[in-house]
Amino acid sequence: MPTSSTMSRSYGTGRRGSGHVVSDGDVVVIALALVVGVVVQWRAVGVVGLGASVAVLFRRRWLFVTVLAATVVGAGRSDVSWTDASDARLGPFRGWAVVIEDPVQRGSVTSVVWQIDGERFESRLYGSAARRTQRLAAGDRAWVAGERRGATGAPRLVQRQRVRHVVGRFDLGVLADVRPGAAVWLAANRVRTLLRTSGEASMDAADSSLFSGLVVGDDRRQPAWLVARFRSSGLSHLCAVSGQNVSYFLAVLAPLLRRLRPTGRAFATTAAIAWFCLLTRFEPSVLRAGAMAALTTWSTWRGRDISAVRLLAVAVGALLVLDPMLAWSVGFWLSVGATAGVSCLAPAVVRWISGPDRRPGAVAITLGAQFGVALPSALVFGRLPVLAVPANLLAVPVAGLVMLWGFPASVLHALLPEPFGRVAMFPCVVGTRWVSAVAAAGSAADLPPWWNAVGWIALAATVLVVARRVRAARTRVPS
After folding, report:
1. Residue 6 and residue 376: Cα distance in Å, rounded?
2. 422 with 413: CB under 8 angstroms?
3. What pLDDT, on the 0 to 100 scale, is given for residue 453?
4. pLDDT tens-digit map of 248-269
5. Are strands 119-125 and 166-179 parallel, antiparallel or unpaired?
6. Which are the contacts of 157, defined by CB distance < 8 A and separation ≥ 6?
7. Element (H, E) at 65
8. pLDDT tens figures, 452-463
9. Which uninterrupted H or E stretch holds 198?
């Protein structure tokens, strides 16, 4: 994601200054209180209220009131979301339904999520019905008839559905007329189709699915063995849209955005970010990245620098108020953890091992991101491969080039005759195969859990030893 200073230079505003009445630490505390309220709900109000009352002793009464209010807001919004996810209008339905998520095929089963009268229902289809729905895309409208039923199954499965705002299942009986969605959905679906057809014409099936995942996070066609390979090598985040994808998308649009006046550019950039979120199906990771990019855009337009930590805290708080169910999304917390690691840990590592005036390099950024995702990865996946550090160092730069060149290459492939179209896609072909090869090597060299723990301890110890030697060398240098 572009830094605020970089974007401010491009906007050319004259007003500068980064003075904030509320410190970054206070903003983080308020955001954490809101997170606790969302997760723990009303039980958190008393606990957080007791803890926040300590602020009164330090004459921070406003912080006590704000933290308590954030907890109440988080608990209230969470309660409303869970109530809405548990209360569905059931019974027969005949009429128009909107496809909310792209149909997903797993074996002989195709899953489709519909929005019916403002509520989401999931259909699991087989045979001819499954084949017909596979041609649908998010945003399309279809005339359907069937029965709305409550969510059934194991409690864990029901909770997972409610986190996705799915309130029940829809037993589809009739699928008749199908119409495309609104213009923004139609444009997004055409771009996704363009990326998919360009990839399929230039690569094999596995590489093509990986290419779509790298550029827009579309991993529906990825085989199970490829998903397992990227997960075991610590590279699965490359197929989840992040701030890197958003920044590259804005870089592609930069020649057009620079022609606009500052205010128009801010509105156009925000609209482009919103459309990119729609293009990538509002995945939790891209919502985090898009919110931070939009906040950066408008803070730069105002002529104010804002730290990455503050951006992250405000983005997390705002997103959880809008959709408290994000608090139960693994992808959301992996994205937040990686961003926090890059923002906080990477600069600290650079200060320890080199000096305060150095910018974080690839190694520091990789270490920061890996330490940032350590807790959610360990809790959810039960693993955090130490080989993810060298794998990310080898794969991330090349994956970034694929992300950057993927859009224009797909357009050129569609416009140019053969073999020029294949030449345009050639860098994407090579880059995708390289990323896949790195994932294969990392997966093949996967270590047992105990060896991974030893590796992380050794890596942390190495950083500390280097930091100590650098510090000792500085003290020996005469002033």
Report:
1. 31
2. yes
3. 75
4. 889 888 889 989 999 999 999 9
5. parallel
6. none
7. helix 61-86
8. 777 778 877 777
9. helix 183-202
CA distance 469 to 153: 58
**Mind giving me the DSSP string for 94-157?**
EEEEEEEEEEEEETTEEEEEEEETTEEEEEEE-HHHHHHHTT--TT-EEEEEEEEEE--S-HHH
β-pairing, 119-125 vs 91-106, is unpaired
Q: How many of the other CB atoms lie within 10 Å of CB of 47? A: 12
Given a contact cutoff of 8 angstroms between Cβ atoms, the answer to whether 194 and 148 are in contact is: no
Phi and psi, residue 253, nearest 5°:
-85, -5
Q: Output Rg (C-alpha) for the chain, integer angstroms.
A: 24
Q: List every span in the chain annotated with CATH 2.40.50.
A: 91-179
Contact criterion met (CB below 8 Å) for 34 and 70: yes
Contacts of 332-336 spanning 24+ positions with Cβ under 8 A: 332/284, 332/285, 332/287, 332/288, 333/376, 334/237, 334/240, 334/285, 334/373, 334/376, 334/377, 335/237, 335/240, 335/242, 335/284, 335/285, 335/288, 335/289, 336/288, 336/312
Please tell me the distance from the alpha carbon of residue 68 to that of residue 66, in angstroms, as a whole number.
5
Q: pLDDT tens digit string along 383-441?
A: 777 788 888 889 989 998 999 899 899 999 998 888 888 999 999 999 999 999 999 99
State residue 13's pLDDT score: 38
What are the backbone angles phi and psi of residue 448, rounded to the nearest 5°? -60, 160
Q: Residue 286: name the closest of 250, 234, 232 by CA.
A: 250
Are 384 and 234 contacting, i.e. CB atoms less than 8 angstroms apart? yes
What pLDDT score was predicted for residue 16?
Answer: 41
Looking at residue 471, what is its pLDDT?
65
The domain defined by 91-179 folds into OB fold (Dihydrolipoamide Acetyltransferase, E2P) (2.40.50)
| Mean pLDDT score, 44-55 | 61
